[in-house]
Amino acid sequence: MSDNSLLEGRGQARTGKTPLLEVRRLAKHFTIEKSLFGRTTKVLKAVDDVSFHIHRGETFGLVGESGCGKSTTGRSVIRLFDITSGEICYEGIDLAGMNERQLKPYRQKMQAIFQDPYSSLNPGMNVMELISEPLEIYGGYSRSNRRDRVIELLERVGLKREHADRYPHEFSGGQRQRISIARSIASGPEFVLCDEPISALDVSVQAQVVNMLEDLQQELGLTYLFIAHDLSMVRHISNRIGVMYMGKLVEVSFSEELYTHPAHPYTEALLAAIPIPDPKVLMPTDRLLQGELPSPIDAAIGCKFRSRCPYASRRCGEEEPVLKRIAPGHYAACHLHE
Amino acid sequence: MTELLSVDQLRTSFFTRDGEVQAVRGVSFSIKEGELIGIVGESGSGKSVTAKSLLRLIPPSGQIVGGQSKLRGVDLLSLPEEKLRKVRGHQVAMIFQDPMTSLNPVLTVGAQLTEVLRRHQKLSRRHARQEAIEWLRQVGIPSPEIRIDQYPHEFSGGMRQRVMIAMALSCKPDLLVADEPTTALDVTIQAQILALLTNLCKTTGTSVLLITHDLGVVAQVCSRVIVMYGGLIMEEGTVEDIFSAPQHPYTKGLLRSIPRMREGRRERLVPIEGSPPNLLNPPSGCPFMERCPQASSECLILPPYVESKPGHRSLCWLTVARKSERQEGLQ
After folding, report:
1. Distances (CA, A) of B135 to A100, A124, A155, A173, B132
2. Cystine design at A54: which of A60, A165, B248, B252 (Cβ 3.0–4.6 Å)?
3. What pTM, to 2 d.p., does this model score?
4. Which 8-state DSSP code applies to residue B304?
């Protein structure tokens, strides 16, 4: 199986010590149908046996089509729900079995920014209340100190002091995402889950937010798990990237390596489908993926990608490939690489 | 190529409680037969309202305040409703971003497809069904004989968009208006749909007006691009012109703000600071002025369109200045 001790990194921000976050054999199954007596009869394996790690100060990107389990993986990591099995080790301590009280100190260290800044901010709270809420919960600030801290945070994310008394609906999408960012860094986290943070924003505003995330990472030494479907943005921001397909991690590598030497046929097809903003570089139409995602509910034996894979052989239908090291720091789950 | 559609000084506004929102503020362009033309812009730029205004499909709070939109010489904006209905779907078809809301959930896919064929092509019930199956096959839907009797919810997002394309192209329209047709889809499905759309339109000779916010999609699909901002056309040219020699600071800014796929280098992105203008009280001058790094007091007045080369025009005082410099140089 994907032996995680093999998944060692290299390059910047690696100390050689334990990674900040280590996910081992994570699984999250959802019950779709129950029998009359409450026995689960149909299961959706949203995340199935996923292992990876993230070093301190690193950005790990997760990409894949909608429904591949990338968001479920991210939300499992910050324990937004109970997981089915596996370990989520934060600085070596497993969070998987913890209850809410045990989790509280980790909630302060692990924060999140979500896709839709329209629904992730409470419309009934003004900016001051929104940003000071985490300060209240995690303490350490007197009432007047809190106000100063909120204003400091607002200015840090490029908003103004006078914005503090306004409500979310008075802001544009980009400004709302800035408020979300200020709120997420208020408690002084080490790890931030960025779940499609720029997908809902206009092209000209996306770059503002991405630059801000990069600056904050530098300044505060943050570690990011960056989930997005915009592959060129993920490449831009991530040190390493994991590619998911139907609940499985099919390839992990350094950003440049992944984009220049994709090893898994799925990664190859995903990259070929990116519309390149240059009319002189045309899309390789011969490498486009045919067909759509098969139903995730009917668990098939063998490689999940084989129904769409141009290289599928008999073996792919009988035996599921596991994540194997094919180059330093580069892992792929495909029988072609053996 | 002869001219198919010519839009002249189109103006569309929405009348809200707060006042008149001028979404489209005098847009002129034309589409030739068989041409694939793209309109790019951010939300609120007026791209989608422009497209919907062409077929008078804007919601009741909106109103076309002025201009013409001539399809083969006939102005669609002044056509009586029942004549316009014959144009819609027959000569001009439209597909939208979300195929779930544009398909009727209580009718089978077949019922909706045959309705178009029977209405516009006057086909018999049996003949229309055969034709519909053939179209489903053409847009790449497996086992169309079975699929035709299914309901939209039994189709995936990509499949629904294929059905929409089949429906739109089944009457062999002269023009297909595609409003963000792939925005809701995954990249792999987007690539399939775009390939399908361009191939089918090439074989049927249908012109396409593609509305999108994705510069990559435009670069891959279109031959000509219109860049919109603040309800106005900022720049228009061939894809080569726009991507390799952009003239307008907004176009330049937009191209700089997307990550370049260059090997081995992580360059810092160059964003456009600020946010798009409020069209409730649009600036009388250049709408991009507030965010433009090269703005001057001249920009308080709207510049005229100037061609930097034939077919490549932009709305900027800098282009005006460059043009007059060139002319002086020639004299």
Report:
1. 55, 50, 57, 40, 5
2. A60
3. 0.88
4. P
A156 to chain B, minimum CA–CA distance in Å?
15
Tell me which residue of A229, A232, A259 sits closest to A244, measured CA to CA: A229
Residue A225 covered by a domain? yes
For chain B, the domains span: 3-91+173-260+270-330, 105-172
Residues whose CB falls within 8 Å of the CB of residue B315, separated by 6 or more in sequence, listed in order: B232, B233, B234, B235, B248, B286, B302, B303, B304, B305
CATH number, domain at A175? 3.40.50.300
What are the C-alpha distances in Å from B251 to residues A145, A322, B206, B276? 44, 46, 28, 14
Identify the residue with better confidence: B309 or A296.
B309
**Does the domain spanning B3-91+173-260+270-330 belong to CATH 3.30.450.70?**
no
Angle at B269 between CA B192 and CA A207, to 5 degrees: 70
Give the mean model confidence (pLDDT) for residues B198-205.
Answer: 88
Residue A299 DSSP code = P
* Per-residue pLDDT at B316: 96
Residue A337 lies in a domain: no
Which residues of chain A fall short of a pLDDT of 70? 1-17, 298-300
Distance of CA B12 to the CA centre of its chain: 16
User: Are A279 and B273 a contacting pair at CB < 8 A?
Assistant: no
Chain A contact probe: residue of B212, B269, B278 with most A CBs at under 10 A: B269
Cβ-based contacts of A279 with chain B (< 8 Å): 219-220, 239-240, 243
* Domain membership of residue A217 as a residue range: 4-332
The tally of domains found in chain A comes to 1
What pairing do the DSSP bridges indicate for beta strands B3-16 and B62-71?
A: antiparallel
Task: Enumerate residues 6+ apart whose C-beta is below 8 A from A152.
Answer: none
